[in-house]
Amino acid sequence: TCATSVRSAMARHAGPRLPLIVKNLIPTLSSVFDSQRITTTAFLAELLNSNVVNDLMLLETVMDNMMGRQKDTCTLVRMLALRGLGNIASASPEKVRKHGAKLLASMVNGMDDKDDPNNLVALEAMSSLSKLLDHVEERDIQSMLLHIAIRIRPFFDSEQPELRQSSIVLFGNLTKFSEGEVFFEQILNGLVTLLLHLQDPKPEVVKACKFALRMCGPNMGCEGLCDMFLNHLREDRSLHYGEFMNNVCKHLMQSYPEMLNRLILTNLFYFKSNWVDIRAAAPMFIGNVLL
């Protein structure tokens, strides 16, 4: 919050002095003190949220320095650097198209961060990637699409609701680039989880699942299922879950009878879910599929 306020004030009033300020701040990104690297990274990350970096031709300089922080020993610095790179989507969308491959690679590296016990870096990478996807070229995302989909899948069931929400929203956004059998398989792999988490205890996760399923619908080759997702999973509409799942299962078995075993086995995993409503939804799902 402090970095946001300082950035806003600087963008409004510092104007021509900003290049010199940035030049003097950049050496502190290599400081031995975590606090200095954190403070500077936070400020520069927020600066990327303002079009002033374009006006003063600072964007490439700040962006390159944020990318250079990806291997910082401090988790918070790595997280803030990814936040800054994601901020480019709102301030300079045309630059996202220009630097799409590098920005996407940074997000993928963040999701693969091996020294991130609380998944703070992964969470920021998923959130920032969702922002960038509206502006990247399709050719840049296609080569990474499958890796990202597989990498985020375990987060759907994370104990941290923020990770569930961000990963599911990102999955929904990825479907805009889906084509062919490869990504269709990822949709089928995630389908049971998304449908069960419509009973998630956190409203923001339920909202994310509704969004992801609406995005998946047109890619599933089943008009009835697509219509159900679009009509019944609107954000402003309450859901009668039992009736909805009964009809979803009818469409699934009519369109994909070969999925029966996969649907049953995936649901069996959720019989031991920590969330009671999801534990209850899984056997109901199996019962509807068998009927």
UniProtKB/TrEMBL annotation:
Residues 63-289 form the Maestro/Maestro-like HEAT-repeats domain. It comes from the Eukaryota. It holds the Pfam family HEAT_MROH2B_C. It comes from Chordeiles acutipennis (Lesser nighthawk). This is MROH1 protein. GO terms for cellular component: cytoplasm. The gene is Mroh1.
